[in-house]
Design brief:
- The protein has about 300 residues and is of the alpha/beta class.
- The chain has 2 domains: about 120 residues, 2-Layer Sandwich (ornithine cyclodeaminase, domain 1), CATH 3.30.1780.10; about 160 residues, Rossmann fold (3-Layer(aba) Sandwich).
- Helix content is about 35%, strand content about 25%.
- An 8-stranded parallel beta sheet has the order 9-8-7-10-11-14-12-13, with helices on both faces. Strands 1-6-5-4-3-2 form a 6-stranded mixed beta sheet.
- The longest helix is centred in the middle third of the chain and has 19 residues.
- It is globular and about 55 Å long.
- The two termini are about 15 Å apart.
Length: about 300
Amino acid sequence: MIYLDDAAVRRLLRIEVLIPAVRQALIDLSAGRVRQPLRTVMDLPGEQSLLFLKPVLTREALAVKLITQVPANAQRGLPTMLATLVLMDPSTGRTLAVMEATWLTALRTAAVSAVGVDALSPPGAKVVALLGSGALARSHALALRAVRPVSQIRVWSRDPGNVEACSREIEAVAAASAEEAVRDADIVCTLTNAAEPVLKGAWLKKGAVVAAVGAVRPNWRELDDAAMRNVVIADSREAALQESGDVILSGAGVYAEIGEILAATKPRPAPGTTVIFKALGQAVVDAAAARLVYDAQ
């Protein structure tokens, strides 16, 4: 068994390899080729603090990831999301590696958004709005630039200091409000810990694609009802209908899973359609990323 810290994972996991692996993992999930129960979630002390337990079995890997989400960590100088992954041999159950998965989680989350954007947005989509200024904003800037000719990224969050720091780091424009960031953007990513909507459908450009990443509990939301009246595609229909407050509280239906779109078993929405891609973070994607890290070391 080997141990890989976050620095090693950063060195070994490359976005240009991760994106096609994520695409295949999402196709396999929708095709029923993996065993993946819904994640277990436990409340922790502290507002909106959670522990997630996520197991999965694929042909290449047996994996379990533990994630803590502690928003108050931002004031402690720590990441708000921390993760550890155990990778096992799927035939024997022998542990192959234990790895810190904080960067793995940030990068694979962005890779899922990039796969969705690549499948659902026109090739010329150039203007990106990031609602959120943490680690996910940084990883999304990297991933989206790998699939689209991004000309401008706008960043907004409730913390102006974080917005300025993030904007400098990813060469983006600091927006004074969420609306300013979103207006006329081709691609919008919601990457917050919000429990109440931060994105209004009235701000969205017709034909925009929204990668909705936050609001990971049934009573949390990032998008208002107007936004959710657009076509909704999920990484997992089952997870969206049971875990996503954006879907549950708006009463929105899920048109398709992204794996069905990628495999062409469901038609893509018509050009010019505004699309909400709701991703809740599937364990099969974690396993695919961990396998890439293990094989590369």
